[in-house]
Design goal:
Layout (H helix, E strand, L loop, with lengths): L6 H9 L10 E5 L4 E7 L5 E6 L12 E2 L4 E7 L6 E7 L5 E4 L15 E2 L11 H10 L7 E5 L1 H4 L12 H15 L3 E4 L3 E2 L12 E5 L6 H13 L3 E6 L3 E2 L20 H4 E2 L4 E3 L5 H16 L5 E4 L2 H5 L21 H17 L4 E4 L22 E3 L1 H12 L2 H4 L4 H4 L10 E5 L11 H4 L4 H17 L3 E5 L19 H5 L1 H19 L13 E5 L7 E7 L10 E7 L5 E8 L3 E8 L15 E3 L1 E6 L5 E11 L3 E9 L8 H35 L2 H14 L1 H6 L11 H7 L12 H27 L3 H67 L1
Parallel strand pairs: 9-10, 9-21, 10-13, 13-17, 17-18, 18-19, 19-20, 20-21
Antiparallel strand pairs: 1-2, 2-5, 3-6, 4-5, 6-7, 6-8, 11-12, 14-16, 15-16, 22-23, 23-24, 24-30, 25-29, 26-27, 26-30, 28-29
């Protein structure tokens, strides 16, 4: 912490530009003097002193010294961390009050209200990696699934003599749960110090201290540190709109309205019984901006969600005519609060890259989310889409019979989905005060309620916008949230439907994070395309979510189809923009999720059909036939098939010419290779020629058949017999192969005669039959040999003819090309002469 008062910091505080006023105000240890310095702003007080256990709460023991700006300071020795203290303020109105330190870092647990001396030097952080990656992890094109939690009632000690678990204990239970369920962020309902339990933390008295209900500041540090180590972001509900009237708080701090308005028409909120901050005072802006910055600097939180922004923007919010004062131009816009919100967002987002600022704003006020440099925008990163929450719940509460008449309630959100950066919230506000739990809002009997809620959640996770769900909604708790009892965790263990629903929500989170199409283009209309928007009669909607286009990769696309009726639509036609294959990745009707197991098709393909329009003209479209189960949602991964290119006449002619040229080139190449091969073979030894004689006979089978010569049987071959009787190989010249053929024929005859003689001895056949058989065999061998020789000569003649023809064609083509060039040159010369 900073060790001395800096006049520049005081100047910033008084001009509304301070961002770290907590370094100047409050209680700080001074190393040089080994004292604690106390500093407080009370511009209209008559006197201020520090009281506590160390001086027996004696107002006269330690009076503070004030300057002309109303800043009171004092240094006191002999104090230690944890000592209790307050300011004893003699107000401008003459009344003396014991006030908690507005900048106190820690306080007593309610109902006690004293502040505590505290510092943050003992804790060692280990979340540097997460902080460095925060800008990327919390970018608009990243997934964000937020679990909203009230620390006091998420889980409570049972059978113990205490009310709450500590921050450390909650962290150790909460982190594994968040990881199992697949949430990316946790949003804590207010943990700044507050006196009244039933306010849930939305009536703050300690803007710089975490509530003592759940432990010490170090315990809270531990919680945030461990969440970061687990890769989970921390968002804090923060309340700068109003504060309570408690005696020890900010109200009438120095006997005047230094934090609120003196005029009750400006300074009070009748619906809540609280006081409204006066954003026109620079010191108030410095106080609030520094509070938010303190939690980012000291506690490493990753974002704040600002409650009741509408109450800040509109002077008449929650008031009747005559209960508010219009601004200078007669309208109801609070320009001072707009200036404050711009300053707040700019400070936080500039100082901490990737820091989230989220507005709970329920009106159509323009440009709530914007860049911090946009002069017309407030500078928030996200806005809660309250319209989506109300419309979708209204639709699901209806009897399905009447949903077709209210179809706009489920599709209207897409008309303004890209006007802001939205979060789709099902928050604590929707499950309290008799509104009923999420499951009980659904129309129908027991199983229909679960099916309907599965369909609603499935629709929400596919809808553009980040996601938020309040605790208990993930396992469909039937009773609404009770602010004095823990959640009904036993439902998960004892009831199959709740257990299955719990698994379904975990699956939704997993798919949401795995599929870039569901989050990358949340703020870009290019990431969404309707397939069925106006099918009110069947209460069916279908749309495609798309990821970013990436070089070298196909664009990620996911089809979501929802059936919001208890009717099954068999082989329902889903129009798609192109030809595609569909692969299912989620079906809410699966048994594992509590469905009946009657599910939609695992895979499907589009088909092209002709459709007659209203004007009587026919058009073609691609459709996929999907069986839609009652009250279900189904996700399909789309894989588009590229359409076949239509070939024009010119393209066909061009391809044919190219093909012809390619064939000619290939034939020329083959002919050249054959000629070269024959030349090489002539130079080779006679044995090599003899070895190639047999394969040549086999390869020429087709040519022999053409001219009517049947191939010889494998038994009657010349080569083996020639070796037996010692016939010498043919000379080098290929033309003498005919003589070889005659020798082969003679050998075959002799062999046949030998075989005939052997047969004669064994079978004792007449000699005349043997001689006739031998003569016939010899005659056939001679005929075959002659035919083979003729065939060989025919093949060689054909090859020579082909080579000559191709060379002639090449010469003709070359001559034509040369002629064309000469003519072109002549024409050019004539033009130049003219």
């Amino acid at each position: 912490m900073k060790e001395a008062i800096n006049r520049e910091d005081l100047y910033l505080f008084q001009t509304g530009k301070a961002q770290k006023a907590y370094l100047t105000f409050g209680c700080h240890y001074q190393k040089e003097t080994k004292t604690y310095r106390f500093t407080v702003w009370a511009p209209n007080a008559k006197s201020v002193s520090v009281v506590g256990d160390f001086n027996f709460w004696n107002p006269l023991a330690h009076p503070m010294e004030g300057n002309k700006d109303g800043i009171y300071t004092i240094e006191i020795a002999g104090l230690k961390k944890g000592d209790l203290y307050k300011y004893y303020v003699e107000g401008y109105d003459g009344k003396c009050r014991y006030k908690s330190d507005p900048f106190a870092f820690y306080s007593e647990c309610r109902p006690a209200t004293a502040s505590k001396i505290w510092d943050f030097d003992d804790f060692k952080w280990a979340d540097k990696r997460f902080i460095n990656q925060r800008k990327k992890k919390q970018a608009l094109d990243q997934p964000m699934s937020i679990y909203e939690i009230h620390l006091g009632t998420w889980r409570m000690p049972e059978g113990e003599d205490r009310e709450f678990y500590t921050y450390r204990e909650i962290a150790d239970m909460l982190i594994p749960y968040l990881q199992k369920m697949g949430y990316t962020h946790v949003e804590l309902m207010p943990i700044t110090e507050y006196p009244y339990d039933l306010s849930w933390g939305y009536q703050v008295t300690g803007y710089y201290g975490v509530t003592a209900r759940y432990g010490t500041p170090e315990d809270f540090n531990y919680m945030v540190n461990e969440l970061h180590k687990a890769g989970i972001g921390v968002i804090l509900d923060w309340v700068p709109a109003h504060f309570p009237r408690d005696e020890h708080g900010l109200a009438m701090f120095d006997g005047t309205h230094i934090y609120d308005h003196e005029d009750p028409r400006k300074g009070s909120q009748p619906d809540w019984g609280t006081l409204l901050f006066n954003y026109g005072k620079p010191e108030v802006q410095s106080f609030l901006v520094s509070s938010a910055m303190f939690f980012a600097d000291i506690y490493h939180i990753d974002g704040i969600r600002i409650d009741a922004v509408s109450a800040m923007l509109y002077l008449d919010f929650g008031k009747k005519e005559g209960e508010y004062v219009p601004n200078e131009d007669g309208t109801n816009i609070n320009y001072e609060s707009i200036d404050f919100l711009k300053n707040l967002n700019k400070a936080l987002r500039s100082e901490h890259e990737g820091f989230l600022t989220i507005a709970e704003e329920s009106t159509a006020f323009p440009k709530v989310t914007s860049d911090i440099d946009d002069p017309d925008g407030l500078g928030f990163v996200y806005k809660w889409n309250m319209g989506y929450m109300h419309d979708s719940l209204y639709y699901m509460e209806l009897d399905p019979l009447y949903r077709k008449d209210n179809h706009g309630a489920i599709v209207f959100s897409m008309d303004y989905a890209y006007s802001e950066n939205y979060i789709l919230p099902y928050s604590h506000d929707e499950v309290v005060h008799g509104k009923g739990s999420m499951i009980n809002k659904m129309y129908g009997a027991y199983e229909e309620k679960f099916a309907a809620l599965r369909a609603l959640y499935g629709f929400t996770y596919a809808h553009p916008g980040k996601k938020l769900l309040f605790m208990g909604g993930e396992f469909a708790q039937f009773v609404e949230w009770r602010d004095t009892q823990q959640l009904d965790w036993f439902l998960i263990d004892d009831f199959e439907m709740h257990h299955s629903f719990h698994e379904y929500v975990a699956k939704l989170n997993a798919i949401y994070k795995e599929q870039p199409a569901l989050y990358e283009l949340d703020t870009d209309p290019a990431g969404f395309e309707w397939c069925l928007q106006r099918d009110a009669d069947h209460s069916v909607v279908a749309f495609i979510r798309k990821g970013k286009k990436k070089r070298g990769k196909k664009q990620e696309e996911l089809l979501c189809i929802c059936n919001f009726t208890p009717m099954e639509w068999d082989q329902y036609e889903i129009p798609l923009p192109g030809k595609a294959k569909l692969t299912k990745i989620l079906d809410s009707s699966e048994l594992d999720f509590g469905g009946d197991g009657d599910v939609s098709e695992e895979k499907a393909k589009t088909k092209r059909v002709k459709v007659v329009n209203e004007d009587g003209k026919g058009t073609y479209k691609n459709i996929a036939n999907i069986s839609l189960k009652p009250l279900s949602v189904v996700y399909y991964k789309l894989e588009e098939e590229a359409p076949k290119k239509r070939t024009t006449r010119k393209t066909a002619e061009k391809k044919a010419a190219e093909k012809k040229t390619t064939k000619k080139a290939a034939a020329t190449k083959t002919s050249a290779k054959t000629t070269k091969k024959e030349t090489v073979e002539k130079k080779k030894a006679p044995e090599k020629i003899e070895k190639k004689a047999e394969p040549a006979k086999i390869t020429k089978k087709a040519e022999l058949e053409k001219i009517g010569v049947k191939p010889e049987a494998k038994k009657i071959t010349a080569k083996p017999e020639a070796k037996k009787i010692g016939v010498k190989p043919a000379p080098e010249k290929i033309e003498k192969a005919v003589e070889s053929e005659k020798l082969e024929a003679k050998n075959v005859t002799e062999k046949t005669e030998k075989k005939a003689t052997t047969t004669k001895k064994e079978t004792k056949q007449p000699a005349k039959t043997e001689k006739k058989s031998a003569a016939k065999t010899q005659k056939k061998a001679v005929e075959n040999s002659a035919k083979k020789t003729v065939a060989d000569k025919a093949v060689k003649t054909e090859k020579k003819s082909t080579v000559k023809t191709e060379k002639k064609e090449e010469k003709t083509t070359q001559t034509k090309a040369e002629t064309t060039v000469i003519k072109a040159n002549k024409k050019t010369e004539e033009k130049e002469k003219k």
